[in-house]
Write a structure and sequence with these properties.
Chain lengths: 305, 305
DNA sequence: ACTTTTATCTGACTATAGTCAGCAAATGAA
DNA sequence: TTCATTTGCTGACTATAGTCAGATAAAAGT
């Protein structure tokens, strides 16, 4: 990355926060603190559990409780205990709260219209397209990759989703018991590693390294959530696994994959993996790949797991 | 503008403010309130007049004074009276303030680098390009067009810049005394109109309408500041003038222009003006244009002057 | 039965970001 | 000269957005 790019990002930050700040104050802030407005918005028509609100808005539990109480006093929100877990609280909008939310939505629409209004049709299209690109890429940049315990909730959730997808996509389904293992203890250092990709606290991908012997590692469990595809997260996971492998002294990585997973094969080929003769008897595999690692990780990524 | 575009703008607003907010807090907010950091940044190495700071940051004079006092107490800023106007105060950074500013700049750079860091080279280029487009178009959307008194400071400044540019660009220079008049009283309702385009309080363009008789108007003084070109402000000024003209009951608009002003001619042709035989003896003109106004203004713009 | 964890609430406190009325000096126009 | 305006300062006030330590109670583990 260079000076020009950094300058451009800083400039964007400065200008856009200023413009958005002024507008969102004048539109959303009408009579209601922004935090309350956001909270109403986040509760939504269907209601939400308070713990979800806390993680989504990243609020202190005390602060959130106070905000909810304030909304309750204004008659906009009703709090009720969840049936299954009496500790958990669910917040729902009252009739009044729902009409308030509609007003907020209308104001937000007006705000957006005020941005688009002065522009020509052509400019509007270009602005919207660029906004979508910025949002997508800032989301991509916010994805974090970090090693995790294979038994942690995030790990289990992503592995479950991974198996589910294999079952859906393989022509004869998928049964983990018939496949070569990659059990939790095999993915825990020093036997191996599991890396999770997460975005805003939610796990959206995984990738594992199983150390076979002192020289050879196997890449397993490569998966990215459908909603996060196209952000190059597979590349980053793979690069991070290679960094892990190098750090562990490995010189060769191997992997096998099913013919249904076209995009995975593309990723491996792009990343310098060469197809080789089968090196195991994995029943679900149609292609086997191998890569010899250089002394240093490749340049594009700066992940340090 | 349609639902899809509005949704996209709202989504951008929500996501980007959240992401930028988190980051700018964690980077710029280290130990120093954001408003103080912004103020230091705005004062800059060369110092700045307090009144300029107030308009640029849109701060209450009391609040700004307090912020400056706080920075002064911390030994970062020195306040001194301006020589020419003893009411005005100039704020300058002390040695310590300058090194603090350098630290802030370094932190800002780190913040930008943290956004770009996880992305591939290709993604970085695309992000930066989209950011520039968003910024440019949001700036364009923030431009306001409004009628103004031809004697107001903004009007005089833009007319002066306009004459200056004509003088530079016309092959034989330009002398307003030899040209057909468009004096302040001719551009004041009901004799005519002067519209100013402004961005964040600064005047960046003008356009005038001189009403010749009850049916025919003349477009004069069309100018956009060089730094604001490419944002379709000329189009908006012209459309707004046409709206004015229609409201005043005019059915025909005329204008003349010099051959050096290629982009102006393009604008007029694009906007439906047809070249006609000379209708006056303006010595600096090479092309004469005319447009018959329909009963309603064209669609793209929503300016209502 | 017990400890630990999870989910929320409460009170007390702080920081940040303003707003507003009024004052005073300097300036500029009538 | 007079008087309105500009410019900045001060004190008093408010709103917003938190943070933190501890209380409480249900649920889950052991």
């Amino acid at each position: 990355m260079n000076r020009r790019q950094i300058k451009s990002v800083r400039r964007f930050n400065r200008e856009v926060t200023r413009r958005l700040g002024v507008l969102s104050n004048s539109f959303l802030g009408r009579g209601r603190p922004l935090s309350e407005a956001r909270l109403l918005y986040e509760i939504g028509i269907r209601g939400a559990e308070v713990r979800d609100l806390r993680t989504r808005l990243e609020l202190d539990s005390g602060y959130l409780s106070r905000l909810l109480r304030s909304l309750e006093r204004q008659g906009l929100v009703r709090r009720m205990q969840a049936r299954d877990d009496a500790r958990a609280t669910t917040a729902k909008l009252t009739q009044k709260g729902q009409s308030e939310l509609k007003t907020l939505n209308r104001l937000s629409d007006h705000y957006a219209a005020s941005v688009l209004g002065p522009l020509s049709q052509d400019q509007r299209e270009r602005l919207v397209a660029s906004m979508e690109e910025v949002e997508r890429l800032m989301r991509a940049a916010a994805v974090q990759i970090a090693p995790a315990d294979p038994r942690s909730p995030g790990a289990r959730a992503s592995l479950k989703a991974y198996f589910r997808e294999l079952k859906d996509r393989f022509e004869h389904g998928f049964d983990a018991r018939k496949s070569i293992t990659a059990d939790p203890e095999e993915l825990t250092p020093p036997n191996g590693y599991l890396l999770l990709a997460s975005l805003d606290g939610a796990t959206i991908g995984c990738g594992a390294l199983k150390i076979k012997d002192r020289r050879i590692g196997e890449v397993k469990r490569m998966w990215v959530a459908p909603e996060a595809r196209g952000l190059k997260i597979g590349e980053r996971l793979l690069t991070a696994l290679e960094t892990c492998a190098l750090a562990a002294g490995l010189r060769t990585l191997r992997l096998e994959t099913n013919r249904a997973l076209k995009e995975a094969q593309q990723l491996y080929r792009r990343s310098g993996y060469r197809e080789v003769a089968p090196f195991n008897t994995e029943p679900y595999a149609h292609h086997w790949f191998e890569k010899h690692l250089g002394p240093r990780p490749r340049k594009p990524s700066t992940d340090r797991p």
